[in-house]
Amino acid sequence: MADYDYDLFVIGAGSGGVRAARLAALSGAKVAVAEEDRVGGTCVVRGCIPKKLMVYASEFSGMFKEAQGYGWSASDSVFDWPTFLTAKDIEIGRLSGLYAANLMNAGADLVHAKARLLDAHTIELVGKDKTVTADKILIATGGRVSTPTDLEGIEHVITSNEAFHLEKLPKSILVVGGGYIAVEFAGIFNGLGVDTTLVYRGPNILRGFDEDVRAHLSAAIEQRGVRLMVGAQHQRIEKTDDGFISHMDNGVKCHTDVVMFATGRVPYVEGLGLEKAGVLLNDKGAIAVDEFSRTNIENIYAVGDVTDRINLTPVAIREAAAFVQTVFGGQPTSFDHDMVATAVFSQPPVGCVGMSEAQARRALHKVDIYMTKFRPMKETFYGGQERVLMKLVVDQGTQKIVGCHIVGPEAAEIIQMAAVAIKMGVTKAQWDSTCALHPTMAEELVTIREKHAPMETSAA
Ligand SMILES: Cc1cc2nc3c(=O)[nH]c(=O)nc-3n(C[C@H](O)[C@H](O)[C@H](O)COP(=O)(O)OP(=O)(O)OC[C@H]3O[C@@H](n4cnc5c(N)ncnc54)[C@H](O)[C@@H]3O)c2cc1C
Predict the structure, then answer these.
(1) How far is Cα 271 from Cα 277, in angstroms, rounded to an integer?
(2) Nearest C-alpha to atom 7 of ligand 1 is from which residue?
(3) Residues of the chain with pLDDT under 70
(4) Distance of alpha carbon 321 from its chain centroid, rounded?
(5) Measured from the CB, is residue 211 less than 6 Å from ligand 1?
(6) For the chain, which terminal residue's Cβ has fewer other Cβ atoms within 10 angstroms, N or C?
């Protein structure tokens, strides 16, 4: 075997890269990781974690209102954005430091540099005037935001990257996009008291999610105060003395302090030197890999968002662990991408696992739908009007539950546990045999008996 500097060189110290580097190093391999930005990647630095902290911060405004219905007197609660930002940045710094420490404690070398492939075994550390060689290379460079390039005034917009660091909280914001990031940020800003408009060019937000979830959530976020404008897109963005005017193709002009685009993310492959190593992309611009995360080049692998399979942190981590097991553990292991639970940290939140009703109707012969919408006890007590949606999609032939969808408080926490049973292939009868836990919202999930009439399918 040729003599390389490292057994494994990992490009990118995000969710996937850190897990792979740590596990490989702990297995005795000689490992290095290159990171061009902060250790921790998107999830820790500009994704899941800071976003969830912002969700928490923004939820208090609603809680203060609810509290009055429970006998608390109104108080002058004031939110201070700089105080929150400082606390949030300290926490992100702590987590990023932990990730770096874990890597080093496992024995991996951490290099702060952009890495670029020179060939299938040689990596240039840009700006360090250094090259290293490795037997195996793992590309875990994640994704990056993508905004339209041909829109007049696009240079004025912010993306989720900047939303975490705004100098001051705007009075008004226009959030553009219909995916989970757009919906989450609309909820965050609305909860923080910012006059919020969410614009999406399609007929409804959260394309690909169950139609009942989409309808329920869009009504709920409007009810909470987000102005929702669907079927509209920008013609141009005009800068004014005190903000921006978004000229929409439906004739509406929106004047806001800030315009945020959350219109998509793409695999981050720029400047990686893939062509020099001969690594191929698929037709979506992601690194093409097989079930073992191996590229077309025998010693080069890729995991996480750069492969654009399911772009979630736990998926990147599991793909990374499977890669290490395959390459350094001597056991070919592939991660099963089926029945991965997902959440939208909207307000109210969404939790889903498995197929939507439309997907099930396309894939299976016949399906049974069980659905309930109700006002939970906590809401009815103080006169709140928000309803919870719970929906089960059942394969009529096998009676297995193939989808579960929840919109309502703690949906993400509930769906994590529902996913265990559904992944194991639970039938509706087994599900129903589980005794309810009272008084909870989740008990409704095991007590839905009535079949629901088929949905009217609408275009996405
Ligand atoms: C706003 C937002 C919210 C999100 N919320 C959630 C959520 O709630 N739950 C969830 O599961 N997922 C969420 N995600 C998705 C999640 O963050 C990603 O799926 C996950 O981080 C992917 O991990 P990764 O290892 O593939 O890449 P990343 O975590 O993006 O890490 C890639 C790393 O590689 C580095 N890098 C890139 N190129 C090079 C190079 N050439 N040399 C050196 N370093 C390089 C980057 O700087 C980065 O640190 C969110 C994403 C965003 C943007």
Answers:
(1) 12
(2) 48
(3) 1, 454-460
(4) 20
(5) no
(6) N
